[in-house]
């Protein structure tokens, strides 16, 4: 009896490496990421309607992710040949070239390892069907964000980009800040509760104290 593959991916865990075929040829996950961040996201299959809109939207944002040193990597359950035909169709429909690879996961090993599955959805062969999962993985190969959408719901690409900005802002400021609800770059941030009042006055001299547990500050020193 085959031992089922258990998901190995959690916030803070090291993303497991894998080697697989893709729309751009054989791919080693760690080599592909290199020293960059990576958005790794799954799809249930090629030539499916919601997935087509999503791939097109990510293709449109390719340069935005590149500016943030973040590579894009898709996953679907079909072959390289089918991926290539689908990518051409996506370009015809959306007008955007898909410059990032799409991993081939016909046997569902990668999506199962990453937990990109819904145990209520299986294909005709009884294999788990990938849902719309998305992982932001940093340049240390650490999983920093996990999104899971059901098959019926397309992703919000702007929200994923916003989350990447938040995580990179958090790292840039050495974990001294957090980002509040609906934050986008340029908005005030929250001073970390771990920062003492004295340290907060030194590091963020323009911060304001709404409550002892809620301190807000601009990041632009001229504000």
From TrEMBL:
Please name the SUPFAM superfamilies in this protein's record: Thioredoxin-like
Out of the domains of life, which is the source?
Eukaryota
Keyword terms: Antioxidant, Oxidoreductase, Peroxidase, Redox-active center
Q: Where is the active site?
A: 51
Where the record annotates domain Thioredoxin, the positions are: 9-169
Where do the TM regions start and end? none
Q: Which GO terms describe its biological process?
A: cell redox homeostasis; cellular response to stress; hydrogen peroxide catabolic process; response to oxidative stress
One GO CC annotation, please? cytosol
Any idea which GO molecular function terms this record carries? thioredoxin peroxidase activity
Q: Coiled-coil region(s) at which residues? A: none
PANTHER family xref list: THIOREDOXIN PEROXIDASE, THIOREDOXIN-DEPENDENT PEROXIDE REDUCTASE, MITOCHONDRIAL
Explain the purpose of this protein. Thiol-specific peroxidase that catalyzes the reduction of hydrogen peroxide and organic hydroperoxides to water and alcohols, respectively.
Q: What is this protein called?
A: Thioredoxin domain-containing protein
Q: What is the lineage of its organism?
A: Eukaryota, Fungi, Dikarya, Ascomycota, Saccharomycotina
């Amino acid at each position: 009896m085959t031992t089922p593959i258990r998901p190995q991916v959690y916030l803070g865990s090291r993303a497991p490496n894998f080697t697989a075929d893709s729309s751009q040829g054989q791919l080693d996950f760690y080599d592909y990421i290199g020293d960059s961040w990576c958005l790794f996201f799954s799809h249930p299959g090629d030539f499916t309607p919601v997935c087509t809109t999503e791939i097109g939207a990510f293709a449109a944002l390719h340069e935005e992710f590149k500016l943030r040193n973040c590579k894009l990597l898709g996953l679907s359950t079909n072959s390289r040949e089918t991926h290539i035909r689908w990518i051409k169709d996506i370009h015809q429909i959306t007008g955007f070239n898909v410059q990032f690879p799409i991993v081939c996961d016909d046997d569902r090993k990668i999506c199962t390892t990453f937990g990109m599955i819904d145990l209520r959805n299986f294909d005709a062969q009884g294999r788990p069907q990938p849902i719309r999962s998305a992982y932001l993985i940093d340049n240390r190969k650490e999983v920093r964000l996990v999104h899971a959408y059901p098959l019926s719901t397309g992703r919000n690409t702007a929200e994923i980009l916003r989350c990447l900005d938040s995580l990179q802002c958090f790292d840039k400021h050495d974990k001294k800040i957090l980002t509040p609800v609906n934050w986008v770059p340029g908005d005030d941030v929250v001073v970390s509760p771990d920062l003492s009042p004295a340290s907060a006055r030194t590091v963020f001299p323009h911060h304001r104290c709404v409550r002892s547990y809620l301190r807000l500050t601009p990041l632009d020193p001229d504000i």
